[in-house]
Design brief:
344 residues, alpha/beta, Rossmann fold, 3 domains, five-stranded parallel beta sheet, two-stranded antiparallel ribbon, globular, ATP hydrolysis activity, AAA+ ATPase domain-containing protein, ATP binding, Torsin
């Protein structure tokens, strides 16, 4: 189906009407319409699918803290896919991001969306499902699988390049994701149609990431030294045995998830970077400075916020319980811009 045909389908004029439209217009008029339509409506072309690797790299390096391994693997995997827009692939790129709250899983997917599509997170080629809303019941799993397959199949006829995100992936019904097999199996027609697409599973939770991170910390091992082999040795036995969405999963057993990327809990040094960035973004960029706000220096402002953050475990408080998730709120509640400050 041509771009113009896809546009007609997107606005509800498709099927039997489309041949009549083709017969009614000359090729020149049709191409002119197609050109104009794709300047107004989002189409499956380079105007709307930008694949900006530089943007992706810069944003992740500037705003993801303490995850050198995961960001390096993701940037290389995605960058190599985007380097040749004409390259065809036997299957889509499939990644699973593992980790507790506040470590960057959702930020990574938003940045991926904004770097991949001109419309960013508003693109029609981005599809976000969360276990809090979609397929919430374990009943009628066959019906859920059929619905999921039909939805993905329908999108693949519009364009072969999408971003599918499954948030809170561990809480989807067990067996649901096995319905994705023919979209990810090497060389299957459905997988080839979506060969330039990306599937991302956000597998939230502390286990077994936190224990592993603590071992790395206590043994003095650098996070950069993690390998894909070690990540799979730690993660795979847990997710296939846990009573969750990936229990005994065929996607895991057949190696169809290309990368299991651990995002480790954040240490104090990472959290301080996050605090510093939040203070610059929310306070200092508005014209304030530490002296105006009653602090001797910038580090004093960072110290105040750090003292409000809960670190664990209790005996040796190493990691932030909520990562960077609550820091913006803490900064905005602690510091008041002078222009709006009122004496109580």
């Amino acid at each position: 189906m041509t771009i113009g045909a896809r546009v007609f389908c997107l606005i509800g004029v498709c099927s039997a009407v489309w041949p009549l439209v083709l017969a009614a217009v000359s090729p020149v008029v049709f191409l002119g319409y197609e050109y104009m339509a794709c300047h107004t409506f989002e189409c499956c072309n380079s105007r709307w699918i930008k694949r900006n690797e530089t943007e992706l790299r810069e944003r992740l390096r500037e705003n993801i803290y303490g995850q050198p391994f995961a960001t390096r693997i993701l940037l290389n995997a995605v960058g190599n896919r985007w380097s040749d827009p004409n390259q065809e692939y036997d299957k889509p790129l499939v990644m699973m991001l593992h980790g507790p709250t506040g470590v960057g899983k959702n930020y990574i997917t938003r940045t991926l969306a904004n770097s991949m599509f001109t419309e960013g997170t508003n693109s029609v080629f981005i599809h976000y499902l969360t276990s809090a809303v979609h397929f919430t019941s374990d009943d009628n799993i066959k019906t859920h699988i059929s619905q999921l397959q039909s939805w993905i199949e329908g999108n693949s006829t519009i364009c072969g390049e999408h971003l599918f995100v499954f948030d809170e992936a561990r809480r989807f019904p067990s067996g649901l994701f096995d319905g994705l097999l023919h979209f990810m199996a090497h060389g299957s027609p459905a997988a080839k149609r979506l060969g330039r697409s990306i599937f991302v599973f956000l597998y939230e939770g502390d286990e077994p990431i936190v224990d592993w991170a603590q071992d790395l910390y206590e043994n003095g091992e650098d996070r950069e030294t993690i390998s894909l082999l070690r990540a799979e040795e730690v993660l795979l036995p847990y997710i296939v045995s846990e009573r969750g969405s990936m229990h005994d999963s065929v996607l895991v057993k057949r190696g169809l998830i290309d990368y299991h990327l651990p995002l480790l809990p954040l240490e104090r040094k990472h959290v301080r970077k996050c605090i510093a960035d939040s203070i610059h973004r929310n306070i200092l960029s508005k014209g304030a400075n530490p002296v105006m706000l009653g602090y001797e220096d910038f580090d004093g402002m960072v110290d105040v916020i750090e003292k409000q953050i809960y670190f664990f475990p209790e005996d040796t408080p190493i990691f932030s319980a909520f990562g960077c998730k609550k820091i913006d709120g803490q900064v905005l509640s602690e510091f008041r811009l002078p222009d709006f400050k009122h004496e109580l």
